[in-house]
What does this fold into?
Amino acid sequence: MVIVCCMVFYSLFRFKARPNQPEPSQTGGHKTVEVIWTVVPFLIVIWIFLLTARGMSRSDPGPKDQPADIEVTGARWWWQGRYRDGGFYVAHELHIPVGKRLLVSLDSPDVIHSFWVPELSRKMDAIPGHPNAIWLQADRPGTYQGFCGEYCGAQHAWMHFIVVAQPPEEYARWQHAQATPAQVSATPAPGQVLFQRMTCVNCHAVSGVSVTGRSAPDLTHFASRKKLGSGIADNTSANLARWLKNPQNVKPGALMPNPELTDKQIADLTEWLESLR
Ligand code: CUA
It folds into this structure.
């Protein structure tokens, strides 16, 4: 910039119009000069494009290059993660070990979402039928907020998730706990009986109880989660009861219909779900 500015200012003063001076010779229509200043920048732009394309393909792993550590699915309006190591499922709460780079694959069963943890990496779209992948790494322990970065419908704004970066030993303990089936008593609690008898099991899974439904958040370790409804409320008994009373009052448009439970059923289900640590 300094060189260009100096040349511009030099030319301005050196070649400015002076009184009684004839017009200098003009170079308009000079074919050789025009060909040179068209072709050279064109080649420079192509060269930069090739460098960029190479850099991008190196920084973005293809999902086929290596198996993903976490298979993330963005769906209306929540996030699911499946950990290859342990084979368990999580919802809107990913844990990662500090300082280790994990490969996250991204997919969607419905519309385009975008996986975005501003403090850790750029956005990457989750596109139905077109798997993408992105590296995820945190250098410091902590909780990082994630969002959906692509408008996807009524509850786009409530498609939050968190990434919890933990020291390796702590992460290993978490991973072991998540991979363990739910602790249920030999005589099922009233809430568990309800869960299995009603339509809950069509969409929700609880490892050790029922794993037929996968279209809604896995509830195996429900009580260990910080948030409900992809971040819309804290995971407390009162909020869970409010959710079970009618999810549409808490998160209008969510794909969970009103289960039309009695207060007693809500209390039983709340008690059981909040026991799933
Ligand atoms: Cu998903 Cu916006």
